[in-house]
Amino acid sequence: MRRYLVPVLGVAVVAFTFAYVLPRVADYGAVWQTLRSLAPKQLVLLVAATIANLITYAPPYYVTVPGLGLWRAFVISQVASAASYVAPGGAAATTALSYAMLRSWGFARRGIAVSLAAIAAFNQIVLLAAPAVALLLLTLVGERNALLETVALAGLVLLVLPVSALVLALASRRIAVRVGDVAARFVSFALSLVKRPPVHWSGEAFAMFREEALELLRGRAWLLAVVTVAGHATVFLVLLATLRTLGVPATDVSGIECFAAWSLVRLLGSIPITPGGIGLVELGLTGALTQFGGDDAAVVAAVLLYRVLTLVPTIVLGALLGLTWRKSARPTVTETEMSADQPKVKA
Fold first, then answer.
1. Among residues 1, 3, 141, 249, which is most buried (max CB within 10 A)?
2. 24 confidence band (pLDDT: 50, 70, 90)
3. Domain span at residue 241?
């Protein structure tokens, strides 16, 4: 049941969305006519937004992995992101493939773990904080959205608790040991519920992790925050560009309303029910944007085009680059780092 339930549920969601819900919102023939009406200037705008989105995938890896370089940061970002769009697991698939690629290039295990943890943490902070920012902006312009209020509140709770624990752990080695011990017991208990063995790490391992995280983030935390926000912002700009080019003006759906719908659905779509949130994202965005006042056919066309522009280029590039990334694998760590990563053997 565990093996087949999630895939069957995912297929059901996709079929329900594209075969039943979206055709009832807007006729696919009308959507196609809307897409065919794009002018050359509009196409240039969409291409520019798509390229900006692709480029901003790489900087978080470049910032957190010393010696990686921009090109390999771009390669790993596209290959790992493509995997998250087509494979079950979402962010877990991204992390696993990123780890494998960095190891193949010779980076040390411990350094990789710290870097990927920093990238994941900053991404989750932005993901969870975005609905709260959207709710604040809607409130300032005198609008309300009950679902957004609920999700924003839940996101803040999920954000504040772990971030507070992380800050305390980074502030003191003693607290780090305690937080690590509590986390280990909690994870072991969760694993026991699914009949899995307990974890083998403890608070001391977390304290060691803390020291390396502090060394990485010292002087780079602000830069990682900037490039992470930029990466999320360019995804939103692709949606805004598709809405404006396909006939959904600001008088129907304002930029703030578009951001509110996007941040809400992006958080809900991060739940790995279907690869890349296919079906869930289209359904959620269409419902939210039409509720704000967008024309049905134009909204469906914009949402579908947005999904194509944010998924297809990355999947294609990721597949092509994934075929060649092993050929470019070269050791990039020093002998000291390599020896620190290997078990010591007495002569």
1. 249
2. low
3. 14-169+212-328
Burial 104-113 (b: 16+ CB within 10 A, else e): ebbbbeebbb
Confidence band (pLDDT; 50, 70, 90) for 139?
confident
Asked whether residue 199 is assigned to any structural domain, the reply reads: no
CA distances from 38 to 152, 233, 235, 246 (A): 35, 24, 20, 7
Cα 214 to Cα 82: distance, rounded to the nearest angstrom: 30
d(CA 191, CA 3) in angstroms, rounded, equals 17
Residue 228 is assigned to a structural domain of this protein: yes
Q: Give how far Cα 112 sits from Cα of 53, 55, 117, 166, 169, Å.
A: 24, 22, 8, 19, 20
Whether the predicted model's global pTM rises above the 0.85 cut: no
**Which pair of tokens denotes residue 11?**
């297929």
* CA 77 to chain CA mean position, Å: 11
Helical segments of 26-108, H only: 28-36, 40-55, 59-64, 70-86, 91-104
CB atoms closer than 10 angstroms to residue 154: 13
- Total domains in the fold of the chain: 1
